[in-house]
Amino acid sequence: MSVVRDVPKQLFIGGGWQDAESGRTLSVDNPATGEELCQVADASPADGRRAVEAAVAAQAAWAATPPRVRSEILRRAYDIIIARTEDLALLMTLEMGKPLAEARAEVAYGAEFFRWFSEEAVRIDGGMTTAPDGRNRLLVTRQPVGPCLLITPWNFPLAMGTRKIGPAIAAGCTIVLKPAPQTPLTSLALAAILKEAGLPDGVLNVVVTTDAAGVVEPLLRGGRIRKLSFTGSTQVGRVLLAQCADTVIRTSMELGGNAPLIVFDDADIEVAVEGTMVAKMRNMGESCCAANRIYVHTSVAEEFASRLTARMAALKVGDGIEPGTDVGPLIDNAGRSKAHDLVRDAVKRGATVLTGGELPEGPGCFYPPTVLTGVAPDSAIIDTEIFGPVAAIRTFETEDEAVTAANDTEFGLAAYLFTQNLDRALRVSERLESGMIGLNTGLVSNPAAPFGGVKQSGLGREGGRVGIDEFLEYKYIAVPVGA
Hints:
The strands form five sheets. A seven-stranded mixed β-sheet has the order 14-15-16-13-12-17-18, sandwiched between helices. Strands 9-8-7-10-11-19 form a six-stranded mixed β-sheet, sandwiched between helices. Helix content is 39%, strand content 20%. The chain is of the alpha/beta class.
């Protein structure tokens, strides 16, 4: 297809497209068919070093660039992305699998980070006060932290890039971006768009690699990267935090999730089912903030499960480019096998399958929307991030029981609750150990809101007014009064 053909397939270093030093390439496959889309350059550690060198060389000039200039580059990039919505959506669907409707929604969502941070670039502030003893003026400024390494996952190829690149550019930081090897095409297309929008050479460098550990670790231990922003698994996040410790690199981490969704007895069941469909099935369930454990009050559990099952069973599974497709393939066979193994384990421990639960025949990494009830507390699905279209339902009797179960996890990214009682809504929201709460809604992501979690779901926040803070350092200058 032309959208694949038109994307550069090389590494983007110092403003130019370059082959990997070794000449190696990696295959980008369509998860709906298993067929290869193309080959792209596969970077080595030496390529990673060249990317950092380019970012370091560009840092001083970029930091000195007027905020309005940085702002206008981001705004131009936003305009280009919106104008090319159809091409970018199709590109994401081909390399990642999500239906075109969801891909279009991601283009709009991802582009908004560039517009949002184009506005924040000109609002980086500081201040001046007088010391309490009257001897000094206390002048505080904010400066870019320096060259950044941004590591993005495969599940939201455009939005995860713009959510990190946007604030880094706005703050005056240079960037080495390492996208996931499963979905590099969207990141390469994004680099081309930023170059077209006028981003100076070396400010953004894109390194695609199948050797993540070999490329990333030397960069973190080399002393020239000053900021790491990572979205991915908690297991990998722990390793990266340890590597950052040697040179005390600033980090922000958006790690794993195990989101609870609670439906109380006074919930509007129609609203709760609709919210659950969004929280569970957005992106085929391949989202860190997807509803992973669904707790429903016993008095409404049968009605809720029946309605949810009807909605899930009616979804059309197929290639994301086909009209009417609601659920595309999972990213790869490993992801599909993981979802199925979790379902089989739950059934073995007593769960009942209301719909789905069987591996389909034929090509592609498809898994049917599945609803389980009677899930035992010791089932692996309770403690494992599913990353698939499987809704696991348990019941509860009391508010305390629901909150205790919801908080019984090392993760704390997102949580959802459905109730029409305002006191309960606020009380439970405050008790849930989670960085984000969906109250009577299944969608929490918004560029204007701080995205992030607590406990082992990460450090720092992306988006919102605080998103740019992750890329800025405070500098204090003491000025004697009368000097």
